[in-house]
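Sample 1 of the test manifest.
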Amino acid sequence: MTQPTLPWLDRNNTRNSKRAELNEGLDRRDFLTRLAATGFVLAISASGISCLGDSASSSTNTDGSFEPSVFLRIGNDGLVTIIVHRSEMGQGVRTGLAMAMADELEADWSMVRLEQAVGDSKYGDQNTDGSTSVRNGGWLKFRQAGAAARAMLEQAAAAEWGVPRSDVKSANGQVTHAASNRTLGYGALAARASTLDVPTDAPLKTPDQYRFIGKTVASLDLNAMITGKAKYAQDMAMDGMRIAVIQRPPVYGSKVAKFDASAAMAVPGVVKVIEVPAAEIPAGFKPLGGVAVLATSTWAAIEGRKKLSIEWTASPNDSYDCVEYRKELEGSVRADGNVVRNLGDVYKAIDGAAKKVSAEYYVPHLAHAPMEPPAALANYAAGKCEVWACTQDPQTARSAVANIVGLKDANVTVNVTLLGGAFGRKSKPDFIAEAAYLSKEMKTPVKVVWTREDDIQNGYPHTVSMQRLEAGLDANGKIVGLLHRVASPPIGSTFSGTDEYHSEGELALGVLDLPYAIPNVRVEACKAPAHTRIGWYRSVSNIPHAYAIGCFMDELARAAGRDPIEFLIDALGGDRKIDMTATGAVKPVDNYGAKWEDHPNDTARHRGVLERVRDESGWGSKLPAGEGRGVAVHRSFLTYVAAVVRVKVARDGTVTVPRVDIAMDCGFAVHPERVRSQCEGAVVMALSNTMESALTYARGRAVQSNYADYRVLRMAGAPKEIRVHLVESGGPMGGVGEPGVPPVGAAFANAVVAATHQLPHRTERS
Amino acid sequence: MRLTINGTPRDYTGDPAQPLLWYLRDELALTGTKFGCGISACGACTVHIDGKPATSCVVPMSTLENKAIITIEGLSDAGDHPVQQAWAAANVPQCGYCQSGQIMAAAALLKAKPKPNEADIDAAMSGVICRCGTYSRIREAIKNAAGMGSTTTAGAR
């Protein structure tokens, strides 16, 4: 049988390792609707309520103070406008947060409208990142605002009718006084309610009272998305707008030495060619620089760019070559690194073990490749700059724009469009700063359009990772010691030239929070200097970490002669909340920004998701020849996920995936339908990562340029069946967007091993 | 040259090499047809030309004399084409960006083959990438639109 050729399944033969070495949008229509609303509107936020006039921009409290935080507005037409401060990129946040608010408000769902907040610190943290938008961003805040508003509307109705507050009841957008058979809609009560004080103790519903939360609710953006009306940044346009396409440096750190624009200027429609200044590296969030071609149409800009003649300066990254770099990382993990966790004596434990297993795992750079390449429209005029962008982080974008055009933040407005996928790429505002810079230079609105080639070749690649794991098993097959070395360029290198080791924060993504009860554990970070920008990509370093650990645990189970799921559950060492202060970690281990006491590393929840996929997937039942199942479990973003992947390996080595079962315990699913679809999408993205995708560099340049060579799964290669199982543990709420990704790659690889009865590459055993 | 877009006659006098995609998006503001790759590799720009699916990013205007183009905006009057209804019922879209292309490809498939089998769906739909990974729901929605029910389990309860 031909061995499958899959980028990540290229596990190294590690026999060379010597023991000695071991010692070491705002939608315009929404805007017009807002202006058209007449009379008073009720505007509520977590911290207060304000009485607004005709325009939402004049937000002054009844006590005269400025009301900085606004998430809800009820017009006297009864329309309930929910202002969502996090970006919609497919994870369903707009509808999910609206459900939370509308439920507590007892709103009539048909009267609910969404408005996308501009970037402004008055909304609190808007960074749509880290799977935080419901659990941190709005779950409590939006419910409290809804509950406060409902209480005020009831109070207003009681006052209107001169009856006790306790005698009125609100439901589905209106308040009723049953005794006198009187009813008033929320719109009719808005003006009166807006004069009242905001209660700080409005009671929240109990779960049995939920009407929307935890129920199936259609996305409020669904209709626009299936009729072509949904607006993304690429779709933005303005009168007098010029479209810019930029040729950026082919190598990170290179700059324009000189260029000839004459041929480009001869292309009909091209109006100007401008150099964009390059940031010094590490470039952080700043534009990479290059030469911009500005035209009256996108096509002219693209054609004009092809005619540019540019000479680039030399860069320290000119020789970046992924084949050579992999060897460098191999050398790095085969020598001592910086110790970041040291529990017991790992060398003694492995030396004395009955069986020793070691393996190395390599994960290449990955590109975000969202279906919508980055784009931003900017209009710099009269000392102000307004942008419309597909940004995950409008506040950081605001500062980036202010910085590049020399304005104060207050004079910059960042409107957030829908995001056509993002996956971390669109939290970096470089493309928005480009548009602002060019608009200022051109004195016209400018839309910067990234082509797919720009997106693949000039993005913020996910880190490349080499990991070496060594373990010892005792005579009963119990793990007695584990050494884990990680060489992977850190995200910090994009911001600081001295960062050459994966940080403790990155190692907390799946390595330092290892749940297994192993008495001797040593984790080392090994040197890995970056030669490109390094960015975060959906589930970040959990991708390589869960892959290596998930594959290695499977190899240990085989070495122990155990069923992999039984082996994993045994390795968890019984139900317990791990004392994360007693793991031997050199520094306190980060927990996705949460406290360990609030969100413990709970082995019962690991076990729960493992048992659920075991029971649902047909684990252990006989499969046809050439098929196999693999399993992996991983906690990330405070959520627990296990996956069983079933593969079929054809005689020619072609691998297909007939079925995936994925079990998620996120504590509580506010919007379960979208939690399921996020899990389905995570499965597909993880399989793309593992089966198809690799971003490589040669002579400092990205080798791949478009979907023809940066491959992702398509319909024919996607699993025919994805079964999502939500585990309702009642545990504290975790994230959803990212945690589905990490375990799937290892489960897939383990399934290939099970199907072929051999490791893709030999693993050292003794 | 003359062509029709969503039933409306249009005279085109621009660059004959310009792909249909940019005429639709930049000149007619029909932005439901999306730009994803520019090389016919992702299918986000799929439209119907004389009833057949085509990736508009690589179709030069010069080839469209007397052709009838239908975009997502012209697929149905009220967003109620059977494929659109099936998409809504299955809650297919996540970010939504590729869905115009997916729907246009699916509508063309069902027109050509009202009862497609799995291989037909694979062949007709594999040109349109969804990075959010909605494939299993797309498959379910196509089967439902074809009145074939579905044995797949997107969103299994």
